[in-house]
Amino acid sequence: MIEAKPRQRVTITLNGRKVVGDAEPRMLLSDFLRQVIGATGTHVGCEHGVCGCCTVIIDGVAGRSCLTFAVQADGSDIETVESLADNGAMNELQEAFHRHHALQCGFCTPGILMSFTDFLRRNPQPSRQEVTEVLGGHLCRCTGYVKIVDAVMDVAARHQPQQDVGGV
Amino acid sequence: MKPRSFDYHRPRSVEEVLALLAKYGDDARILAGGQSLVPMMNFRLLEPQALIDIRHIPELGHVHVERDYVEVGAAVTQNRLLAWHDLGERLPLLAATLPWVGHFQTRNRGTVCGSIAHADPSSELPLSLAMLGGEVVLRSVRGERVLPASEFQTGMLSTARESDELLTAVRFPTHAGAKVAFREVARRHGDFAIVGLGALRAPDGDIILGIAGVAGAPLVEKMGPGDLMDRIGDIATEIEAQDDIHASAAMRRDIVRRLSPLVIAEVQA
Fold first, then answer.
1. Is B1 on the interface with A (CB under 8 A)?
2. CA dist., res. A46 & res. A28, Å (int)
3. Which of A46, A66, B103, B175 is the most exposed place for a label (fewest CB within 10 A)?
4. Is A168's pLDDT higher than 50?
């Protein structure tokens, strides 16, 4: 007979707020976020780490929530796509995606937004090649990827460091 | 795509890990980044009774420079090592191979030691360790031992690790000033290598060729004097290879035959 293991209390800081839920050890963080907490912005695709839909930021770095158990995330800081918009107003990255048609069905989009939220924090002036490599960790069936790269490069361009033009 | 039930442990020290391994043996698995382990569990290819989470253990989080090698602890992620300021200078082969390991997102969680302990034949880190003649440090309640890569890497997904041992660190020999090259054939950059080829030329001039993705474990060959193309031809013919859904054995041999001269030329330049 197969028995479920007792559920454990899992406490995470989700988008800056403490949230608590119960999870069996085998529950994936992706399922915990969606089903226990109700944060359904994080999507589930392949459940083996290759499609990138489930990507969230865990303790400051983008990672696959389908390859993380909720119990592993106990005590961690998690950022999901719900953290990006400010009271319904899209943030700069989301705006750029909108402007450049970097999404159609939107299923893969939350994961991509979180990957680039992490990446642009570390490398605010990436090359197109660097953006393409990070995007390589995501699968998109709709857009053909080019417009996603365009959107990210657009955001980077808006943050060019100021060139000092004057003399002494 | 959901894993089977297991018990989850989060010990706070290496001692506690070893005690758990002594208790569970083969029924437990170490959980570091989980980027190789958890997909297998989600597919139910692996159903461990217990997972031992080592991600937060302070003793395992180090990158230490010793006289002849750099020691990397079991909790160090691949991206952390990739961002290490001394990587290009002291370990140029790793600077060349690490960007090919998985994707940005998996390197944020996946560990250097985890990839080596997992021993997938197409993986870049086991190949790098083998090419450099590096070592692994294994600890159990019975003590500690250090094994050279060639003794540790025994075959496809298998190593000489005993079921009660923790791989606590790996040691990469420093090779500042060596010329290095690495090329990989894969369907998408970051996917499993169909064939991975590395070349290393130490300042003393010997060229080492490393091949991943063909045989069950990384193959390392010293390319001494003599006709290079003949030698490559022999290696491509003799290496043990199998068909799988990504490529036939014949295709893999052909890639070895055609790409080896190119990686070797890169280090001869």
1. yes
2. 13
3. A46
4. no
Identity of the amino acid at B208: I
Amino acid at B9: H
Confidence of residue B269 (pLDDT cuts 50, 70, 90): confident
User: B89 — alpha (psi -120 to 50), left (phi > 0) or beta?
Assistant: alpha
Q: Is residue A48 scored above 60 in pLDDT?
A: yes
Tokens of A128: 């197109």
Inter-chain touch B104–A64, beta carbons under 8 Å: no
Q: Does B78 touch chain A (CB under 8 A)?
A: no
Q: What is the DSSP string of B135-148?
A: EEEEEETTEEEEEE
Mutate to test the interface with A, among B5, B82, B105, B120 (most CBs of A within 10 A): B105
Q: Do B35 and A47 touch (CB under 8 A)?
A: no
Contact B105 A115 (CB under 8 A): yes
Q: Which among B5, B105, B189 is the nearest to A64, CB-wise?
A: B105
- Mean pLDDT, range B88-97, rounded to an integer: 98
Q: pLDDT category, B259, cuts 50, 70, 90?
A: very high
